[in-house]
Write a structure and sequence with these properties.
single chain; mainly beta
Length: about 180
């Protein structure tokens, strides 16, 4: 995955927590000078990180959180409540290490998964491994185009990067306040 992340091409990184070592921090900082991080459940050495943040891109308000404060974890109703509380059009959350993207009641929800394919207890059926993934977002006005990169291994053990494109347009009747 590192080869896909060219310094100077990405304007901002939204990190959803559990950035547990300086080497990873330095690597992300090299890719984009604007690195926004929220606190994950393993960020014990970073007591000053916020649990959630909001950034504006185009006319979209994008909120992000690690996800360990969403109860039940990954629950769509709980995520919708969090998005409403943060007054955002898009909510990014993590914690499950599994990619998801869907629209609900005019809001867009994205879990980018884990770029490292980090272990995930209880989120995957027995024998299923997490698929390493990350997302790049392109925002133009009220349109967000999400590019999802997933590192998949075929039956012969050969790794391939798959890219999927998902789009979201905020309904003009739902302008964020």
């Amino acid at each position: 995955f590192k080869k896909l992340l060219t310094p100077g091409k990405i304007g901002q990184i939204l990190c959803l927590g559990n950035l547990t070592d300086k080497e990873t921090y330095d690597f992300l900082r090299q890719i984009a000078p604007d690195l926004q991080i929220v606190k994950g459940n393993f960020d014990v050495d970073a007591p000053n990180l916020a649990l959630s943040k909001v950034v504006n891109h185009g006319s979209l308000r994008i909120g992000f959180t690690h996800g360990h404060t969403i109860i039940p974890a990954g629950d769509s109703d709980s995520l919708l409540i969090a998005a409403r509380h943060m007054d955002v059009d898009v909510l990014l959350w993590g914690g499950t290490h599994k990619f998801e993207a869907y629209e609900l009641e005019g809001k867009f929800f994205v879990n980018p998964g884990s770029a490292t394919g980090a272990f995930s207890s209880g989120w995957f059926p027995d024998g299923e491994e997490p698929i390493p993934s990350f997302c790049l977002m392109d925002v133009q006005g009220d349109v967000l185009v999400l590019y999802v990169y997933q590192l998949k291994t075929d039956a012969n053990g050969v790794e391939n990067v798959g890219v999927e494109k998902v789009s979201f347009r905020r309904n003009s009747n739902q302008a964020a306040s």
